[in-house]
Amino acid sequence: MIDLYYWTTPNGHKVTLFLEEAGLDYRIHPINIGKGEQFSPEFLEIAPNNRIPAIVDRAPSDGGQPLSLFESGAILEYLADKSGKFLPKSGRQRYRVLQWLYWQMGGLGPMAGQNHHFRNYAPKKIEYAVERYINETSRLYGVLDKQLDDNEYVAGDDYSIADMAIWPWIKPYEKQGQDIEDYPNLQRWFERVGERDAVKRAYAKAEEINPQNNVEMNDEARRHLFGQ
Fold first, then answer.
1. What is the pLDDT at residue 225?
2. What span, in angstroms and rounded, lies between the C-alpha atoms of 131 and 118?
3. In terms of pTM, does the model score above 0.70?
């Protein structure tokens, strides 16, 4: 059994996508980040960086004590190795997948995240910041579009944890100031992944936990989310 500490953000969705695809038993523990639940002592024991997602594997492969992990990329890599799915065990293709996983972790996620913040949540509009992060998001979309020109999925012919990591960050493309029709290869891939049954199940669970992905952006939420 996997205990998943989760909220309905792109990083949270990555893990539910994997768990639904792999058919692993799991239970969700919602961590409402707008209410500051990520700062509870119990959660910080699992995720000292006070960010979701995090997991506790109650039955790790080594047979030892329960294993806790934070950071969505590390969680995806661990679960893929545990289940033997969506990441080759060795060889060049394993590293092709991992390079795109790390590309998301180090590039697309942080840049799109800042894009969301300055376009949608910042108390003051800073035009330079908005323009910078829209442009950088656009550049990264272009990189991905080129990669998908002759690949069915991000790392090649097979669906992998790289796709699971990237897709939730593309889904809110309108909030990032992007027109997905400008990236035809990316659009084709985005629509194909969105039709997967596991993706639909994962987002249905998100809707149950946090209908319409609502965040009441009051002073309390700003303090918890942005340190304001």
1. 62
2. 9
3. yes
